[in-house]
Design brief:
The structure is a single chain. The protein is α+β, with helices and mostly antiparallel strands. The protein contains 7 helices and 10 strands. It has helices spanning 2-14, 20-34, 40-53, 56-60, 77-86, 165-181, 209-222, and strands spanning 68-69, 94-103, 106-114, 118-128, 131-141, 200-201, 227-238, 241-250, 253-264, 267-277. Strands 1-5-4-3-2 form a 5-stranded mixed beta sheet, covered by helices on one side. β8 and β9 (253-264) form a beta hairpin. The longest helix has 17 residues, at 165-181. It is globular and about 50 Å long.
């Protein structure tokens, strides 16, 4: 039933484009009268939650005239979104947003899914005039806790140090450029406290601390596995949480890297990530690209 309700809500959006502007104006008038404003962050959470709840309000936050899809396995627009819903399993999809942050017109979410199997995902939504107009994501299968006992999503969730957002984004940007791209490991102390083993890792294969990271990299090198970061396409942040979206290769295969960092006193202290293989162009269902972000 939930699946049917959500499908109907999308269908209504698809057929109501001509009246959308009037409906939007009416909705805004109601909000002004009631003095209740829904933040873009809450709208993003509502959209993801609607995959499980079937609440049509979540889908109503999508602009029916302009919805650009960057998940390469999904067709563009609301029609592509609706096509995915048609293939939902009995009982619908499952979704639980663990973290939600906002940076200007962007909202980025860290979510536990049952989406054609248990998965962890990062979703990025771009808003225009209070409506969702663009979507990017990265998904990976759920894995057991890592050697330090951390899952892919546990840990702090509340953003703090909101006045340090831009400074923290610069820390992450420089870390990826200096350490992950250039490989200048002698400068690691500029970004992670080398005097303490307090670097918390949520990657399923890597234990905590710099020693854990070093052993993991050494193990990959022995197996002839390379992890390359070529380009960072977007850095988004709210306070002490910063998401970096990068492109590169892993074991010589095209890879999309979504890395979420928690920064404390100018140093990186915690890391979550989702790595996803980039589909070959012959399998793309839209032509929007995996990393195309407006300037």
């Amino acid at each position: 039933m939930k699946k049917v309700i959500l499908m109907l809500s999308v269908a209504m959006l698809l057929t109501s484009c001509k009246n959308d502007s009037k409906k939007t104006e009416h909705k805004e008038e109601i909000k002004k009268e009631s003095k209740v404003e829904v933040s873009n962050k809450d709208k993003g959470v509502a959209l993801i939650a609607s995959l499980q709840t079937g609440d049509p309000e979540g889908a109503s936050y999508i602009n029916p005239n302009k919805y650009i899809q960057h998940n390469l396995a999904v067709a563009d627009g609301l029609a592509g979104f609706g096509e995915v819903l048609k293939h939902a399993p009995e009982g619908g999809f499952k979704s639980k947003v663990v973290r939600a942050y906002q940076d200007g017109d962007y909202v980025f979410l860290h979510t536990i899914y049952d989406f054609f199997g248990p998965k962890i995902g990062f979703d990025v939504l771009r808003f225009e005039n209070g409506q969702i107009v663009e979507h990017w994501d990265n998904l990976i299968d759920v894995a057991p806790p890592n050697p330090s006992g951390h899952t892919q999503t546990d840990g702090p969730t509340k953003a703090t140090d909101l006045d340090k957002t831009e400074a923290n984004k610069e820390v992450v940007k420089d870390f990826i450029s200096t350490i992950l791209m250039k490989g200048e490991m002698d400068k690691i102390g500029n970004f992670i406290d080398t005097g303490k083993e307090n670097y918390i890792q949520h990657n399923p294969a890597i234990p905590d601390g710099l020693s854990g990271l070093g052993k993991a990299l050494e193990g990959m090198a022995k197996q002839g596995i390379s992890m390359v970061y070529n380009t960072t396409h977007k850095i988004l942040g709210e306070g002490n949480f910063v998401l970096a979206i990068s492109e590169g290769t892993f074991a010589d295969k095209p890879m999309s890297y979504y890395d979420l960092f928690r920064v404390e006193n100018g140093k990186i202290v915690e890391h979550w990530d989702v790595m996803e293989n980039i589909l070959p162009k012959s399998e793309w269902k839209n032509t929007n690209g995996k990393f195309n972000f407006p300037n």
